[in-house]
Amino acid sequence: MALPLFATPSYQAFFSLHSMRGLIFILVVLIVCLLVTVAYLYSKVKQLQRTQRELLHGADHFLTPEQFQEYLSSLDSRQIGYYLQRDADRKTNSGSVVSIAVLLACLLGAQPVFAQSPVKGVFPFTDTGVVITMILILLPILGGALLLIAKVMYTLHQYRNKQAAKDAAAFEAAMESAQQHDATQAVLEARKQALDYQLSGTELGGKTVATDSKGLLKNISTHTTLPVVSQKKSGLNRPGIDPQLARIVIWYIVSAALWLLIGTTVGEYVGIKFVAPDVDHVSFLSFGRLRPVHTNMVFWGWSSLGMLGLAHYIVPRVGNNQLASYKRAWYALILINASVLLGTWALMSGVNNSGGEYREYIWPIMLLFGIGVVICLVNFLQTIARRQTKEIYIANWYIVSAIIFGLTIEILAYLPMYQNGLGETIIQGYFMHQGVGMWFMFFTLGIVYYFLPQQLNKPIYSYSLGILAFWTQILFYTVIGTHHFIFSAVPWWLQTVAIVGSGGMVIPVVAGATNFILTFKGVWYKVASSYTLPFFIVGIIFYFTGSLQGTAEAFRSTNLIWHFTDFTVAHSHLTMYGIIAFFLWAGIYAVVPRLTGREAPQITVGIHFWLSLIGLLFYAIPLMYGATLKGLLWQSGKPFIDGVVLMAPYWLWRAIGGSLMWLGHVFFVYNLYRMIAAPASRNATEAAGQQLNAAMAAASPQL
């Protein structure tokens, strides 16, 4: 039902001179401010009166013993030394013990803070003119009260300075008195000796020179720099990777990164069109053509190639063997890149699969992608079959299952018998949701199950939780595609099954997120010194929140508000970007330095992280908020165009957030270049070591 709080018939802003509520609100704020100001002014006047009375006691001003000891303990070593030196020369010199200015600093105390709670009441006036008149009257009164407070504060400050000067003079007189002179001098000498005490720095280790007799310390650097950001821990040296496998993984990742940059450049341009729809009038740059170019390029180009590239590293590593065939890996890479390239050309030319979301590529082009994935599946299965370990690690469970599900949904989505009528709608929901959940999400979870324990240097928290999440996701996620078509012509029972399956997704999501978070148990301190773990943490957070958000969207009551709005766009970016992209970046930053021996500048990795995260929040949160208002507006019976006008400022935030995300991708590509192609920088120690190795090799006898 409509809520008048969010959609008022008059369309008046709350803070408006034509709105009685806004004027009364301003008046109440002014009254509260005036009352607080008067209360504060009253307290300061009373304090001023007390200070004035104390100052007017007369010239006979003496310190109590407690005050004398307090002032005495506030002297530092320099002041005590000055006093003792002056006391030694007092037969020929005279002067004050310490500077009056120093004593003033010692004697100034903390000021009490006064506050008064706002007084609430019922305002009886209802006429706009009366309210405005009272506002105009209260404004100068409030200004005058503030000026009066400033005047009282200045006068109080002057009185305090005078009081401090009198206390300083009394303190000096007390120290000069014969009755306290000898005792005071002894106390001051003991105090100065205590203040001058310093540790020698050898109390714990002694004075023996440290030696590394076991050879435990390596690569010691005495050259310090001024860090702009906190220094992160560099990757440890690992056993060498097969050069052929390293080239394959790097080419997959480089291809994925280029598709990410190109695809999000298209997405950035599409986002700008929401703010400036008439920016161009070229057919192949129209929104209807560029939007599927963006989604398919980041789906099949960036995410898919990134996942497959990391899988080519993971699958043989957890089996402790080599990849079954390097040639097949290259064939798959060529076919998938060709499918994305041809698909982009076809979509911009107006050739598509009748607008099916995420399956806009026509079937001959998607066939190339499918063949490439089949080749990868065969390669991975043969590699797993030849493993040197007894068990199949859970990462390979997820990766192989994701590939099988990906091929299944692709075949079903392009079968001719499902290309017409209501069946196509049902298959469309199945395809796009299984593509996200059983291809991208399933695959990425397998990547996390390998790289997260590796980066933390500890095993996954619970293998059983991982298996529970694995089977329950297969059970529930495969039936939820129809929740995109609630209240449609799709059978009611099928909609209900999808809603129940969406609710059941709480089990694998909670199990998986709990497993990942508890893996950090005892090693949270490593996050501060790592530039990969923050990517994992963000991915885990969005995995939990984004997945449960999808569950919330599936219910019929929420569908009434959010369906057909930009809430779906925000949700898809929270999942595909907040989960998939961040997990892929974490894996890439973890593996590429191991393959090339080079690391990206930590400051540019941090810039990439924060631009992507802040950009995503700027993108998604305004869209979710605006979409909720838009849904409520529709429910109240307002015209469609009112929703368009309502969303204009939120689309601006979408463009701003998308721009930050795109800029983060530029830094990601730069970081990838620094890790792969940039010349490695050497310091003097490394250069000297390499020259020594070369000299030793030249001097050794030739065999």
TrEMBL record:
GO terms for molecular function: cytochrome-c oxidase activity; heme binding. Keywords: Electron transport, Membrane, Respiratory chain, Transmembrane, Transmembrane helix, Transport. One of its GO terms (cellular component) is membrane. Residues 247-703 form the Cytochrome oxidase subunit I profile domain. Pfam families: COX1 (PF00115). InterPro entries: Cyt_c_oxase-like_su1_dom, Cyt_c_oxase-like_su1_sf, Cyt_C_Oxase_1. The keyword Transport applies. The chain crosses the membrane at residues 20-43, 92-110, 130-150, 248-272, 297-316, 328-349, 361-381, 393-415, 435-452, 464-486, 492-511, 523-544, 574-592, 604-625, 651-673. It comes from the Bacteria. GO terms for biological process: aerobic respiration; electron transport coupled proton transport; respiratory electron transport chain. PROSITE patterns: COX1. This is Cytochrome oxidase subunit I.
